[in-house]
């Protein structure tokens, strides 16, 4: 047996076959050439594999493969020609339970003799001592040992589930004792205590990893699904029951995951319904159901999303599979996803974490080349993500395959497939940084590809969500996981019907672990709680209020502003720590108080939001989550910009303002415009320096009329750093003077008062003078004329100007005016007069 990476169909990774060319026990070969009789029988909770084969004499040999040591161990040999229905070994490897039937030849030989069809035995194997008969009946029996939740805790008692084709399940309690050193024997083997777990059931599924039993019984023609949890102390508890609206009869019988089964019995049982229960650590509970098809031209299957309160029924056009359907639909558990496929016809990845939008699930039909590489053999989903390939006798560990999904992301022509592939990639969770880098590389080249949603926006929101989602429960109702709220477009080849379903009735009050998360999800659905997802709208309003107050000269409390700015410092520090390589783009290199204020407010508001809804989580942890989430957003924006910058070979801050912009600079400018569009609609902060770089690129790449149009419509934001550089780096040619004047007249007052003095030009003097006159005359009340000006000091006799200068002189002489002018430039009536005369001279061409 060996392990290793291999691929199982598109989007699924796994392990190689579990049989080597030679199975060994110590130094002795136990199997060399005869593999036809080699069969995998069970996979225990610890991953050990129980198998059987027939030796040269026809004896049935039981062996165990230890997945930790990668060694094989002989368990027991039956010196008869028997077929094994089921077997299991306890965690201590002291007991082997097996159900066997006589071979067809033996049955024909003894058909006139009375006897039992199935024999269920309990064998002492440490060392081999005795054999006890548990059942001798005409119906088939399946066996399964329970495994303690704490593998290091060895109990003196083993517990064995026994499942009968006569539709009952029992639990045997087997106490073992040691004699003569290491000899283990069953205590009171003549009378083993037992409990009746269930009866009159028509379907049962065993979850080995979580030690759960799901079963369906019929009550007054109603199909009731129940779940029993076997606890750490080996007691059992009925956890929930719920009605299933599926057509079942009391005559049907089907077992799932009780070993790999007796082949003849499996073939008989497989003619009935296909039904699986899948769970994940996030608190999801899904029941996947498919009936036999009346017509191969279309197929229908249903998924009960109990954690969301509804059922989705999918009708599938199988595409050009080429042949009629002869096999059942296969359901596989992939943690956040359920794979549903029919080889050669279709392959679906259903998003069970966020099933509300159909575009979050991936649908590939037989016409899709990727769907055709799925294996043609029948697969069985075991506990967790283990998958058994019946056709090749291989055991796989199924997982999403990032390289395939990246390929699909680039090759897809449908927005729904791109959306689904993006979310699948981000949910993988393995090597997230490298995976994000590959996605960003593709986005930087294809950001205008999608028309139904904003690709940059969706990536930023989804990736930031997945960066904190696995850590804490209920994050899917507290944080946005998608920028798309509704999806009304059709998915080719898929018809979907959504129906509300009754919620499971929890039978236990004190819940922990998975059950607590499931119950929390059910509570949200039961009480119709609206999603409490965080949005940045409140932050945006508060940010605008703070900026307006600053421009009006008002100030908030020092402690409040100190806390906001301290949050921003932590975010910037975290963003810098995430980027290990030297940064090429000139961002995060200036103060940009407005963006720092916005990110600080976002951390504060997000922290308060999480504190309101996350009970029992420490405040420091929530504060760090808020910082991590905000810094992740900014980090992704920086990475997108950095990738494009590197792709186009632009040097850091090497943008010349003379001449026209290159194609590379225009490409980066266009990308930055799309980033701004994506973040603005979600009210997200941008890295300090982003607006400065965007404006400089705009000046370089756009004609003046387009540049001013971008500024007036809020696409370009004028920052103090950007305008200062324009005024200093551009000379005063006629073209540049027009550009400078057009920009400085559009400056916000707070920035303008700092900038005007930097440009030693008559235009700048005019603007300064206008602002001074506006400020002085704001509260002016007309009074009787009393001339106090010395006309002999004027260089020109221009009455309107003389009148204005006299008013300004009188206002400036008052004490209140001196107080109003404090903090402003040293501008007075004489300066205004000189500027007005110079401007008039220029206009008249004198």
What characteristics describe this protein?
alpha+beta; 34% helix; 6-stranded mixed beta sheet; 36 strands; 5-stranded antiparallel beta sheet
Entry summary:
This protein is of the alpha+beta class and 846 residues long.
Which strands sit side by side, in order, in the main sheet?
Answer: 22-18-19-20-21-36
- Could you say which structural class the secondary elements and strand pairing correspond to? alpha+beta
Largest sheet report? 6 strands, mixed
Compute the CA-based radius of gyration.
Answer: 38 Å
Chain-averaged pLDDT: 80
What does this structure look like?
It is a single chain. The protein has 846 residues and is of the alpha+beta class. Among the domains are: 538-760, no CATH class; 770-846, no CATH class. Helices cover 34% and strands 25% of the residues. It has 21 helices and 36 strands. A hairpin with a 3-residue loop joins strand 14 (157-164) and strand 15.
Topology summary:
Blueprint: E1 6-7, E2 12-14, E3 23-25, E4 28-31, E5 39-43, E6 49-54, E7 60-66, E8 71-78, E9 82-89, E10 95-102, H1 104-109, E11 118-125, E12 128-137, E13 141-145, E14 157-164, E15 168-179, E16 183-186, E17 194-199, E18 201-207, E19 212-219, E20 222-230, E21 236-244, E22 254-256, H2 263-269, E23 274-280, E24 284-290, E25 299-305, E26 310-316, E27 330-334, E28 337-342, E29 346-351, E30 362-365, E31 379-381, E32 386-389, E33 394-397, E34 399-400, H3 402-411, H4 415-428, H5 432-446, H6 455-468, E35 494-500, E36 505-506, H7 513-526, H8 537-551, H9 558-578, H10 593-613, H11 619-647, H12 663-682, H13 690-701, H14 704-712, H15 720-729, H16 734-744, H17 749-755, H18 762-776, H19 799-812, H20 815-821, H21 829-844
């Amino acid at each position: 047996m060996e392990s290793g990476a291999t691929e199982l169909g598109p989007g699924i990774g796994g392990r190689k076959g579990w049989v080597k060319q030679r199975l060994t026990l110590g130094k002795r070969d136990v199997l060399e050439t005869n593999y036809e009789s080699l069969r995998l029988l069970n996979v225990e909770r610890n991953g050990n594999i129980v198998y059987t084969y027939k030796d040269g004499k026809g004896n049935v040999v039981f062996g165990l493969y230890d997945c930790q040591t990668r060694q094989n161990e002989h368990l027991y040999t039956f010196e008869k020609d028997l077929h094994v229905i089921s077997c299991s070994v306890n965690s201590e490897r002291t007991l082997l339970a097996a159900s066997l039937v006589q071979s067809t030849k033996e049955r024909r030989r003894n058909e006139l003799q009375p006897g039992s069809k199935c024999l269920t035995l309990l064998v002492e194997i440490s060392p081999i001592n005795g054999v006890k008969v548990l059942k001798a009946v005409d119906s088939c029996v399946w066996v399964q040992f329970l495994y303690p939740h704490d593998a290091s805790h060895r109990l003196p008692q083993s517990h064995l589930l026994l499942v009968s084709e006569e539709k009952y399940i029992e639990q045997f309690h087997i106490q073992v004792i040691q004699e003569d050193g290491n000899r283990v024997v069953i205590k009171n083997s003549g009378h083993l205590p037992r409990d009746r777990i269930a009866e009159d059931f028509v379907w049962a599924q065993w979850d080995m990893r979580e030690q759960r039993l799901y079963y369906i019984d019929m009550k007054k023609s109603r199909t009731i699904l129940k779940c029993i949890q076997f606890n750490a102390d080996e007691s059992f508890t009925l956890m929930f029951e719920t009605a299933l609206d599926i057509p079942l009869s009391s005559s049907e019988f089907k077992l799932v995951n009780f070993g790999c089964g007796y082949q003849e019995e499996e073939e008989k049982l497989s003619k009935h319904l296909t039904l699986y229960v899948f769970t994940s650590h996030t608190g999801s509970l899904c029941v996947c159901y498919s009936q036999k098809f009346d017509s191969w031209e279309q197929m229908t299957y249903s998924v009960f999303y109990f954690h969301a309160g509804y059922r989705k029924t999918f009708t599938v056009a199988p595409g050009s599979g080429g042949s009629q359907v002869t096999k059942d639909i296969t359901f596989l558990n992939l943690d956040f996803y359920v794979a549903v496929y029919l080889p050669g016809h279709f392959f679906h990845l259903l998003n069970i974490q966020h099933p509300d939008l159909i575009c979050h699930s991936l649908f590939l039909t037989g016409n899709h080349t990727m769907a055709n590489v799925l294996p043609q053999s029948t697969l069985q989903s075991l506990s967790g993500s283990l998958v058994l390939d019946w056709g090749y006798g291989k055991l796989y560990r199924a997982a999403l395959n990032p390289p395939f999904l990246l390929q699909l992301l680039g090759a897809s022509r449908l927005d729904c497939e791109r959306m689904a592939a993006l979310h699948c990639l981000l949910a993988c969770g393995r090597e997230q940084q490298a995976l994000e880098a590959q996605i960003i590389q593709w986005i930087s080249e294809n950001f205008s590809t999608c028309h139904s949603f904003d690709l940059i926006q969706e990536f930023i929101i989804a990736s930031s969500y997945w960066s904190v989602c696995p850590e804490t429960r209920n994050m899917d109702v507290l944080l946005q996981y998608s920028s798309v709220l509704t999806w009304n477009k059709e998915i080719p080849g898929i018809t979907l019907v959504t129906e509300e379903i009754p919620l499971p009735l929890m039978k236990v009050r004190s819940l922990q672990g998975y059950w607590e998360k499931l119950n929390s999800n059910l509570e949200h659905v039961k009480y119709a709680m609206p999603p409490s997802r965080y949005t940045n709208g409140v932050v945006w309003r508060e940010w605008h209020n703070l900026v307006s107050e600053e421009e009006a000269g008002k100030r908030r409390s020092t402690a409040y502003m100190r806390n906001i700015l301290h949050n921003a410092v932590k975010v910037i520090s975290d963003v810098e720590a995430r980027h290990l390589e030297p940064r090429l783009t000139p961002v995060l290199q200036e103060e940009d108080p407005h963006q720092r204020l916005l990110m600080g407010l976002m951390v504060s508001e997000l922290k308060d939001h999480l504190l309101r809804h996350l009970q029992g989580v420490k405040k420091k942890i929530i504060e760090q989550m808020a910082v991590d989430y905000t810094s992740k957003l900014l980090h992704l924006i920086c990475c997108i910009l950095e990738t494009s910058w590197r792709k186009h070979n632009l040097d850091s801050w090497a943008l010349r303002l003379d001449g026209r912009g290159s194609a590379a600079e225009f490409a980066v400018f266009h990308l930055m415009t799309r980033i701004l569009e994506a973040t603005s609609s979600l009210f997200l902060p941008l890295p300090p320096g982003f607006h400065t770089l965007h404006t400089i690129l705009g000046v370089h790449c756009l004609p003046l009329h387009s540049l001013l149009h971008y500024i007036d419509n809020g696409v370009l934001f004028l920052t103090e750093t950007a305008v200062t550089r324009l005024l200093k780096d551009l000379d005063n040619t006629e073209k540049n003077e027009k550009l400078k004047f057009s920009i400085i007249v559009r400056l916000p007052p707070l920035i303008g008062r700092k900038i005007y003095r930097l440009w030693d030009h008559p235009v700048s003097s005019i603007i300064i003078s206008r602002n001074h006159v506006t400020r002085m005359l704001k509260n002016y009340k007309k009074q009787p004329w009393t001339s106090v000006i010395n006309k002999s000091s004027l260089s020109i006799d221009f009455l309107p100007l003389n009148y204005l200068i006299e008013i300004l002189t009188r206002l400036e002489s008052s004490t209140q005016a001196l107080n109003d002018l404090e903090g402003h430039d040293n501008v007075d009536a004489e300066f205004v007069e000189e500027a007005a005369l110079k401007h008039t001279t220029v206009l008249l061409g004198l």
